[in-house]
Structure to design on (593 residues):
């Protein structure tokens, strides 16, 4: 970034990931970091999700339930340019599960102008399977099917319905999602963070993320935020008060928060299916592909 | 020119609107709708630009995939259709956006509410899109109540009393609401946009354009953290706070600096009628329970 002025204009930090890869955990961390203390998981200090109907309607003077998905995707770049304009605060943390993709006007759905950077959270897809199945209240095979198909999507509504509080999100396959956000054509800096490193090497990983986003912190602040957003605490909080972001059909949002659970959760066939489809990307990010 | 009544206004239109109430009048129209070329941009004091829309106190210009709409001085709408756009879509966005701009320019207060008639007055159902306003009104229509308005009511403040007039005699229902309310599925022809599974149900025969007093208000709320349908009366501060979120097109209200009059009208409304909040879990068919709670309030002795 060349000058202070540019830095100030570029206020959006995208928290990008395939579902169930540490995104919400990181948002809890940001909340703890900005709050200097306890967190309410239903009052996260981050700034919503890219697919939010609320954000869209706030910028467009439209009832977006009347729009086709294609029309929504064509307006989204302008929506986030507008959002960056009307927010007074200098950092906006916006979660996104959409793949970095083009709309039918051939523009990236994520606009570069207001973007400072993106953090991309990646998790061993073998561990994503059971967590994603739980999230969807579906079977492991259904989760694998979505992760393997080239045009997988999230929050898709049957028969072109458009009423839910989130728009449909095109994710591609699990590999396609990773590649869309990490390829060299993405016109802003992207830092890849592995869920496993957040779990096993928290301090170094979270510190790297904070520096990359350009957030100034006091000594000890990152450590305290990590402790306050500890997975077990988030799970306890969901148990106490519920979590509004939970899929209505699933039992709980926060499940195990561990790595390597796939060895007990998946059959040999299921493991093979994931590895066959995603070997290249898995190897690139250090996930074993031989059993 | 076609002549209509809609949103409390005498309307003269170059294009046909099956949605409005045909209405013969000899007076000057209060609103004229015509096809034409819209200005490339609008300028002027207090200009607010949002996505695909520019707004001042007296002008409104919106660029949508189906058409561009220019609204001026509360008395004219110019439509410039995009090539290949279908008429239903062009009418739908005029009814939901340009019309709201007309009302704001005229200092009217459009409220996001459906309504049924009850004991000489009306009962409002407020809430964001998807809260169940239209489905609730339709179900009550099935039980014998008359529908007053769908989606929008226009408030009129007159001294201490506050009345409302309806928008136009058409209810918009998503495909799944037909099954929920026991109606026969609508036909393809009744879709409000060619690729949207939402359908129009006209009720021109029972449409009543007389201003009516508001007797009761229900706020419909869907909530991911509740497991059962519940109802509670709201005290005036909570009622005001929830009602003011039901301004139809808050972006217009803010851009045209109409907050004060909206707040004054909402205050009147809060004092004029009891307000109840009905919370229901998402994703379940809770319509029968909602209707039971509503009718318990409307007909306490039955």
């Amino acid at each position: 970034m060349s000058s202070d002025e540019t830095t100030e204009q570029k206020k959006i930090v995208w928290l990008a990931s395939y579902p169930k890869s540490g995104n919400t955990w990181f948002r809890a961390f940001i909340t703890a970091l900005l709050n200097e203390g306890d967190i309410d998981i239903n009052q996260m200090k981050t700034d919503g999700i890219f697919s939010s109907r609320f954000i869209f309607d706030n910028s467009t003077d439209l009832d977006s339930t009347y729009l086709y998905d294609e029309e929504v995707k064509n307006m989204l770049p302008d929506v986030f340019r507008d959002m960056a304009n009307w927010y007074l605060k200098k950092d906006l943390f916006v979660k996104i599960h959409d793949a970095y993709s083009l709309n039918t006007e051939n523009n990236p759905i994520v606009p570069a102008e207001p973007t400072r950077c993106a953090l991309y959270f990646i998790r061993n897809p073998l561990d994503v399977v059971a967590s994603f199945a739980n999230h969807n209240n579906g079977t492991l095979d259904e989760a694998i099917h979505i992760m393997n198909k080239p045009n997988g999507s999230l929050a898709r509504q049957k028969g072109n319905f458009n009423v839910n509080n989130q728009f449909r999100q095109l994710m591609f396959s699990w590999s396609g999602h990773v590649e869309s956000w990490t390829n060299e054509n993405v016109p802003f800096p992207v830092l890849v963070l592995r869920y496993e490193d957040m779990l096993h090497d928290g301090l170094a990983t979270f510190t790297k993320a904070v520096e990359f986003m350009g957030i100034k912190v006091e000594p000890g602040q990152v450590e305290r935020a990590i402790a306050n957003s500890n997975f077990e605490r988030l799970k306890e909080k969901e148990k106490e008060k519920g979590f509004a972001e939970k899929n209505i059909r699933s039992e709980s949002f926060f499940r195990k928060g561990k790595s390597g659970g796939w060895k007990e959760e998946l059959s040999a066939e299921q493991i093979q299916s994931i590895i066959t489809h995603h070997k290249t990307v898995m190897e690139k990010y250090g996930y074993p592909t031989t059993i | 020119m076609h002549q209509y009544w809609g949103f409390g206004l005498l309307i003269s239109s170059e294009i046909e609107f099956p949605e409005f109430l045909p209405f013969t009048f000899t007076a000057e129209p209060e609103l004229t709708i015509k096809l034409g070329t819209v200005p490339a941009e609008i300028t002027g004091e207090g200009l607010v630009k949002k996505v695909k829309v520019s707004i001042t106190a007296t002008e409104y210009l919106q660029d949508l995939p189906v058409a561009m709409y220019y609204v001026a001085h509360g008395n004219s709408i110019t439509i410039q259709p995009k090539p290949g756009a279908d008429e239903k879509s062009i009418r739908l966005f005029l009814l939901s956006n340009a019309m709201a701009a007309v009302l704001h320019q005229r200092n009217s207060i459009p409220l996001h509410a459906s309504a049924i008639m009850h004991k000489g007055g009306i009962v409002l159902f407020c809430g964001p899109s998807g809260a169940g306003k239209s489905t609730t009104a339709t179900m009550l229509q099935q039980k014998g109540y008359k529908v007053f308005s769908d989606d929008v009511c226009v408030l009129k403040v007159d001294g201490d009393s506050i009345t409302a007039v309806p928008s136009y005699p058409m209810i918009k229902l998503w495909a799944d609401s037909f099954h929920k309310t026991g109606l026969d599925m609508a036909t393809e022809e009744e879709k409000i946009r060619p690729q949207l599974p939402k359908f129009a149900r006209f009720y021109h025969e029972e449409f009543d354009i007389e201003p009516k007093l508001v007797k009761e208000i229900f706020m419909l709320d869907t909530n991911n953290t509740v497991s059962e349908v519940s109802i509670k009366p709201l005290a005036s501060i909570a009622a005001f706070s929830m009602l003011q979120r039901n301004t139809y097109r808050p972006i217009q209200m803010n851009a045209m600096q109409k907050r004060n009059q909206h707040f004054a009208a909402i205050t009147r409304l809060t004092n004029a009628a009891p307000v109840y909040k009905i919370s229901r879990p998402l994703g379940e068919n809770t319509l029968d329970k909602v209707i039971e709670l509503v009718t318990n309030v409307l007909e306490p002795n039955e």
